[in-house]
Amino acid sequence: MDYIGISRVINFFELHVKFEELYNNIFLKIDEVAERVLTLGYTPLHTYQDYLSTSTIKVGKNITDPEASVQLVLDAFQTLLVKQRAILAVATDTGDEGTSALMSDYIREQEKRFGCILLTLTNDQMKDKILKGWNFNRAIFLLIGAIIFIDGIFTREWIALLIGAIFTFMAIFAIGCASGSCSTTKSCCADAKDSSPMID
User: What SS3 state is found at 166?
Assistant: First the structure.
């Protein structure tokens, strides 16, 4: 994972620790799989070049975007899980209990890791959506929403509370007109006027 040292992110150290943890974990699994291959009477691959030449996992290079690096890890886990389930099915059919147990452990562990990484990615995307991309529209919606909501609290008007909450929600999550992406369309009257014949 050569993108460990070049990820330009606020949570760089958190990602660095996670990537190193994954690297060490996979390094141990390479040894375990090699030992299992030897136990079954076959010869495992010996070099990383051999691994790369036979691997179907996409290799990342010069990745600086944190979400892209995490997504690459998620894609790798998905590929591994598909292959491990296929190996588990073959091992179960042939009565290879050792390989079945090994794959079951890997699948259980990696599904858990996959879920944790996916949650981390989702949380980061949500933070970016809330903290970035602020413009005049969002600020106005937030201000109006807050004023209406606070007024609804003092006047005990639930409609004001609802309207204020909607405006505030739209501003925080950059939804609709609050994001500055409002589109205007011609009214039906304008369309009718444009399409009506001119009378002299």
Answer: helix
Q: How far apart are CA 26 and CA 76, in angstroms?
A: 12
Integer Cα distance of 72 and 110 in angstroms: 15
Length of the chain: 200
Q: CA geometry: angle at 84 spanning 78 and 86, to 5°?
A: 110
Neighbours of 80 (CB within 10 A): 18
Q: How far apart are CA 139 and CA 145, in angstroms?
A: 10
pLDDT in tens, 49-89: 888 888 888 888 887 777 778 788 888 888 888 899 999 99
**Alpha carbon distance 97, 157 (integer Å):** 67
State how far the alpha carbon of 20 is from the alpha carbons of 14, 120, 161, in Å. 10, 16, 48
**What is the pTM assigned to this prediction?**
0.54
Q: Are 118 and 74 in contact (CB under 8 A)?
A: yes
Residue-range domains of the chain with CATH: 4-131 (1.20.1260.10), 136-195 (no CATH)
Q: What share of the chain is helix, strand, coil (3-state, %, to 5)?
A: 75, 0, 25
Other C-beta atoms lying within 10 Å of the C-beta of residue 40: 11
Assign residue 176 a region: left if phi > 0, alpha if psi is -120 to 50, beta otherwise?
left
**How deeply is 148 buried, as exposed, middle or buried, from its count of CB atoms within 10 A (0-12, 13-18, 19+)?**
buried
